[in-house]
Structure to design on (590 residues):
């Protein structure tokens, strides 16, 4: 049985904001199925009472002194943007403007 | 004077310090070498001739004023294109960042500049460091100088190939699952993954934040240690940076080079000593173990029972973190924007941009990570992988109660021909079978050349406890003193 269906891949691509083509969907569904079948054996490890590790460095709440430091210049940051206007990033419309 | 491009970084620095050559002459020789061979090797995505010559001239001026120079002053270095370099294109080998010039330098780039090294340019890699062959670079693969029809390893294939092609004596890589060590192994060069948190991630384009570790690539162990010492150490701009000094890796490398390993206990990882590797790789590994015994090392077999689950754990954890990290490529703040015709919505433009800008392996991993993190699958996949990560860490901790370092081949197979592992992504993932456990644990590991199989280089991996990076340099330098370095055929 397949671990993941073409429909699920399409849904995940939508969630990931990837406008994948039909051809990509066909290819990825098969490949992701192979990968998931291969990694599924991680479930064989008895680990119910084992705490998870998210990170190898045992540091928490790392703070620095609250001192004002120079930051990047606005023009330098906007220079790399695909579109900028009036000192800001310009984005496509977010809200529907139809009346 | 003999060809400086064949010299070690330590030799080059010595000649510059003594005035026998100038940093500008050294930079020019390497830039000329790049111009002569890189069309065939394609190690570089961007060569900064002007910047390199200016940096070299600055070193020469400082020397002539009698200023004290650091141990690598004037030595050229190539930097993997996943690391931010102010004003110099940084793409992570992706179309989504084509032409992007960062407004700041990564911490390690600041340190490289501060040390007077001369940055030659940016090296090719698998897109966003996802891959083991550079075949996933959006700008075409790098060719292995040992055989131009074969992969140079990945993701840092460009950095490793630049060393093997004598285009640079030093290079910077990043290692998330083996991306420094596996390219080192298949190009016959040295690649070291420092302790996670021992080198700063500030300015590194994030792939898997809990695993990404920048580190040195070189042709000798001492050179790698010299570079490690320059880039390592605490950085307040990286919250996972360890607030302790890096052990003296240069002294350890020089101690190892004396060829005495009396009293050092090596553990052969039982699970990685036979199965799954090519016979020639196993043979070279075993011969090297015998060489280390002759130097006085004691060798025992150590079992790490959960290492066999490291690959599945990694391919759940790393894509999960990647799916989150790569959300920043939204066509707003940097790089590509596609389909913005004034009619499409932000979401449509974002989706079109990401589909056009990302290559297939990046898309696969984003989708895989999104799946592993989604409700209903989280506990079985991502949650379980994090628990297995704990068990792998315990395997390491218990092993290091018995031995000083663990040893294994670096990668199961020598450089493979282009196209032989791209159809089934999981076959590509197997390249990192032996390197991944270290990343999940967070300790340091190094790959050092140990011989040839079928005429191609084999890498020997030494894994050490967290913040004991010096131990692996000592053993690596001892092995190098016994088996020598490898010289690729003339290009």
């Amino acid at each position: 049985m397949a671990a993941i269906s073409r429909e699920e891949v399409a849904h995940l691509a939508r969630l990931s904001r990837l406008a994948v083509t039909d051809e990509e969907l066909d290819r990825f569904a098969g490949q992701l199925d192979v990968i998931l079948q291969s990694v599924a054996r991680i479930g064989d490890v008895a680990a119910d009472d084992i705490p998870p590790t998210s990170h190898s460095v045992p540091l928490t709440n790392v703070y620095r002194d609250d001192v004002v430091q120079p930051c990047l210049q606005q023009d330098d940051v906007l220079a790399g943007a695909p579109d900028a206007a009036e000192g800001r990033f310009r984005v496509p419309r977010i809200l529907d403007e139809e009346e | 004077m003999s060809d400086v491009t064949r010299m070690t970084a330590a030799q080059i620095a010595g000649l510059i310090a003594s005035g026998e050559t100038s940093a500008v002459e050294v930079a020019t020789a390497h830039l000329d070498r790049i111009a002569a061979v890189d069309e065939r090797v394609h190690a570089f995505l961007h060569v900064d001739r002007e910047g390199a010559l200016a940096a070299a001239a600055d070193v020469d001026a400082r020397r002539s004023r009698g200023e004290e120079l650091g141990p690598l002053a004037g030595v050229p270095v190539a930097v993997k294109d996943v690391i931010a370099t102010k004003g110099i294109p940084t793409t992570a080998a992706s179309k989504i960042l084509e032409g992007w010039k960062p407004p700041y330098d990564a911490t390690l780039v600041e340190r490289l500049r501060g040390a007077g090294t001369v940055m030659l340019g940016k090296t090719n890699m698998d897109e966003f460091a996802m891959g083991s062959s550079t075949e996933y670079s959006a700008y075409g693969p790098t060719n292995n100088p040992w055989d131009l029809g074969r992969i140079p390893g990945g993701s840092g294939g460009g950095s490793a190939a630049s060393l093997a092609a004598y285009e640079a004596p030093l290079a910077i890589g990043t290692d998330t699952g083996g991306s420094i060590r596996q390219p080192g192994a298949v190009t016959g060069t040295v690649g070291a993954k420092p302790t996670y948190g021992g080198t700063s991630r500030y300015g590194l384009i994030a792939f898997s934040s809990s695993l990404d570790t920048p580190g040195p690539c070189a042709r000798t162990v001492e050179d790698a240690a010299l570079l490690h010492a320059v880039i390592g150490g605490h950085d307040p701009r990286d919250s996972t940076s360890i607030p302790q000094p890096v052990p003296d890796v240069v002294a350890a490398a020089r101690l190892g080079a004396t060829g005495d390993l009396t009293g050092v206990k090596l553990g052969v990882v039982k699970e990685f000593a036979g199965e799954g590797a090519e016979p020639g790789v196993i043979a070279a590994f075993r011969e090297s173990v015998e060489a280390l015994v002759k130097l006085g090392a004691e060798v025992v077999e150590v079992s790490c029972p959960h290492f066999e689950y490291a690959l599945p754990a990694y391919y759940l954890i790393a894509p999960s973190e990647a799916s989150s990290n790569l959300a920043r490529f939204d066509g707003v703040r940097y790089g590509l924007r596609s389909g913005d015709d004034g009619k499409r919505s932000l979401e449509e433009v974002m989706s079109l941009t990401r589909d056009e800008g990302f290559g297939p392996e990046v898309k696969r991993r984003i989708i895989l990570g999104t799946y592993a993190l989604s409700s209903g699958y989280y506990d079985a996949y991502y949650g379980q992988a994090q628990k297995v990560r704990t068990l792998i860490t315990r395997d390491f901790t218990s092993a290091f109660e018995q031995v000083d370092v663990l040893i294994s081949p670096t990668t199961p197979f020598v450089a493979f021909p282009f196209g032989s592992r791209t159809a089934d992504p999981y076959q590509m993932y197997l390249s990192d079978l032996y390197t991944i456990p270290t990343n999940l644990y967070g300790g340091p590991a190094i790959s050092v050349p140990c011989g040839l199989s079928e005429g191609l280089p084999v890498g020997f991996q030494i894994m050490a406890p967290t913040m004991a990076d010096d131990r692996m340099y000592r053993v690596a330098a001892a092995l190098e003193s016994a088996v020598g370095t490898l010289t690729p055929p003339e290009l």
Q: What stands out?
A: Residues 6-43 of chain A form a domain with the Histone, subunit A fold (CATH 1.10.20). Chain A is about 35% helix and 5% strand. The radius of gyration of chain A is 23 Å.
